[in-house]
Amino acid sequence: MKKFRISVNNKVFEVEVEEIKEGATTHSKEPVIENTKPGVKIEKPAVKEAPSPVDLSGEKITAPLPGTVSVEVSEGNAVAKGDVLFILEAMKMENEITAPVSGTVKAIFINSGDAVDTGDTLAIIE
Question: What is the pLDDT along the chain (126 residues), one digit of tens a residue?
Fold first, then answer.
């Protein structure tokens, strides 16, 4: 193993390089961790458990066009048909996305300020 110090975009990194013989294959499962200060030990990040699956039954609310979203409701809110759920800013215009049915907001999949694309699921009403 040889140690090298490299600079990328004015950031200095210390790397170790191992010569691999022809025909040999190695795969590292270790995460790449940036060490910006020599002698500082960086712990591996904890592995998070996958979130529990969300029941996707109900009326899906999708983005009609790409833009930036402002969320106007919260999960668990009761909504009536026609209530404003989201405001979608696209091409300097604000478009209201309303509830197509009455019910309860079961799940919201985006946050205010998120960029969405046409057809992205924003929420589910049950």
Answer: 788 888 888 888 888 877 777 766 655 555 555 555 666 565 656 655 555 565 678 899 999 999 999 999 999 999 999 999 999 998 889 999 999 999 999 999 999 999 999 999 999 999
CA 114, 120, 125, 126 torsion: positive or negative?
negative
The model's pTM is: 0.56
Q: Domains in the chain, please, with CATH?
A: 59-125 (2.40.50.100)
Question: What is the DSSP track for the chain?
Answer: -EEEEEEETTEEEEEEE----TT------SPP----STT---PPPPPPPPPPPPP--SEEEE-SSSEEEEE---TT-EE-TT-EEEEEEETTEEEEEE-SS-EEEEEE---TT-EE-TT-EEEEE-
Cα dihedral 92→94→100→106 (10° resolution): 90
**Hey, how many other C-beta atoms are within 10 angstroms of the C-beta on 121?**
15
